[in-house]
Structure formats: C-alpha cells, structure tokens
Design a protein that fits this description.
homotrimer; 133 residues; alpha+beta; Jelly Rolls; five-stranded antiparallel β-sheet; 3 helices; 26% helix; 38% strand; globular
Amino acid sequence: MAVTEIIDVRTTTRAETIDITSLVRAAVKRSGIDDGIAVVFCKHTTAGLTIQENNDPAVKAALIAHLAQAVPHGAGAVSAATNADAHVKSSLIGASLALVVEAGKPVLGTWQAIYFCEFDGPRNRQLLVKVVG
Amino acid sequence: MAVTEIIDVRTTTRAETIDITSLVRAAVKRSGIDDGIAVVFCKHTTAGLTIQENNDPAVKAALIAHLAQAVPHGAGAVSAATNADAHVKSSLIGASLALVVEAGKPVLGTWQAIYFCEFDGPRNRQLLVKVVG
Amino acid sequence: MAVTEIIDVRTTTRAETIDITSLVRAAVKRSGIDDGIAVVFCKHTTAGLTIQENNDPAVKAALIAHLAQAVPHGAGAVSAATNADAHVKSSLIGASLALVVEAGKPVLGTWQAIYFCEFDGPRNRQLLVKVVG
C-alpha cells in the first residue's frame, strides 16, 4: 500500500541548502499514488526541510545568513552544547513538509523548490517520503 | 477522489496576515471528505501560512512586528535580493499546514484561526487545499 | 475509520518543552492504522510542537533560551498583548506536525523525540492525533 520511500543526501559544508525537488518528485512517482498528500520527513535534529525559491542563489544565501546571525554558532544562550545552534535552527525551520500530490507529482508554485537544510554538516542524511491517496 | 481545492487571496499591503479560516472550511466541505487529514499549501516563496489567535488584533500586529525586527527589509545579511527578507520570513513561518478533519470540518481550538501571511505584497496569491480520508 | 485521538498535557512553568513521544506512539497505535501519515495538532495559540533531540537536556534549554532572547516577554514590538511573545513563538515553531507511520508506529530518527512546547503556562493543553492510511 503506502510504501515509504527513502532519500539519501550527502552534505559537504556545515550549513547549506540542497535542492531535493527532483529526488522528492522521483520518490512520489515511485509510490505509485497519483492523487493525495505526501509527507517529506527529515530524520535528524540538526537539519530541516523548507520550500524556497528555485532560481536566485541570493535567496538561499540570505536564509543561511539570517539563521547564522539569529542563532550564532557557539555564542551566548545557545552555547551549552557545541552544536546547539544547529538544533535551534532545525526547530525554527521544521523537520517535515506536507505536500499536495496531483497526477503523480507534488504540486509546487512556479518559483518553488524543496530544500534540505543542513545546519551541522558535512554529514550523510536520510529523508523519508510517504504518500497517501 | 481527493480533489484539490483552490483558494485565491488578494493582499493589499507589503506585510499582513489575512484570516482564511472560512475559506479553508469551505474548501474542506467542497472536498466531500468527512474524516481525515487536510493540507493547506501556499504556492509562493514570499508568503506563508500560520495558525494564530482569532480575536485580539494586537497578536497579528505582534507577529508582523517581530518578523520585521528580526529580518529587516533591505538590511544587513539579507540585502542580496531586495525582497530577501520576505523569503526568509516565508521559511520561518512555513508554506504548508497539516490539519485534522472531522465531520467535514478542520478541527481548531476555541481561539484558533488560519492565517495567510503576506510578506511581499500587495499581490494575488493562490493556495491549495487537499483532503484525504 | 480515521478516529481522532486526544492527548492531554499538563504544563508546570511558563515556558518548557515536554517529551510527548510515548503519548503520540500510543495514540497512533490506538488508531489501528499500520501504514500511512499522522498529523499531531496543537489546539492552542501560545504553544507549539517540534521534533528535537531526545538525549541532551542542553538542547531543550537552548531552544527555550533562544526564543526567550529573540522574542522577549513583555518587551518592545511585542508588548501590545501581555503574552504576545508566546503567540509569536507559537507561529515560529508551528502548531502541527506531519509524521510518517510504519508498522503502527511514527517513524523517528535515532535521536528524535516529539516535544510539546509551552510558551504561556502553566496550563492544561490538548493535542489531537489523526492517522490516515
């Protein structure tokens, strides 16, 4: 029935956003469900998932820069654990996305892409995609 | 089966929250599914969706004011794109909501309303509502 | 069919995170659905839900401390309502979580737990869990 699809992501720096739209699209297609709801789920507490612009690299940079400024690495209130900033960023961005599926595809706006957000890399990460119809 | 409903929203200022509860309720009812899960999805990367208080206008103002202060328009780290602040706010608030549906209605707490959050208006915006049972 | 399960939570301080993983697991089991998607929904606008680390208490403390610093209680832009900070924190963290369900259980990473986030306690709170397969 509702099979869970797995997406593996390899990150290469401490904090970055990686466009996973084509990987999510392929996972939804593999599920064989044409019409329904998909959940993309991040199994890690120092990373997250967001939907952002698919075109201007300045937007991705702005998101990482804002979070670095708002939740500094190793500073002040969040210094108790060395990577506490990454955990806080994960809770601010969120670990799961709920998407609409139509004609076997996740529906996105013209300028939208799905991004995996790494906050404590480089690491090997695993995401789940589940579709119900 | 699981039809996708469309909600059109017209915003009138750069940053505002618009109560879309009655529009979402009508969309869920049109879906014909009495019991299940609904996803409300925003097709834009400079806007978002949140659940907030339905009564005190000071709460809506506080959310917009906090975000304006935390992610200033055109300042510092987020100046690379002129509306980069709106993109960052969109990722902080989120582009989709997952709701519980019972008796043909999205279940909300006594004080909850569903808000569309505009961060780069005024614009015409489109939301999707999908229900599975 | 898709029954809605209720979880009651009693908080004891103004701002805290409470591990509700076992409560969500029990609710998913009670639903009788082995495979699908679960939504955990918070019926309050001064609280939220997040997924965070299940081990190091410093991480929970860092999240509360960051939010206290970023959205001060009773200060500046958010002073219009006395608990406006709690409302803003609720929108930043979010009121619902979408989870993947397999073999009758919500799937979590090794280090993940599900937390209820109280921002204006102590109070009695109610959460909903809905599973569709």
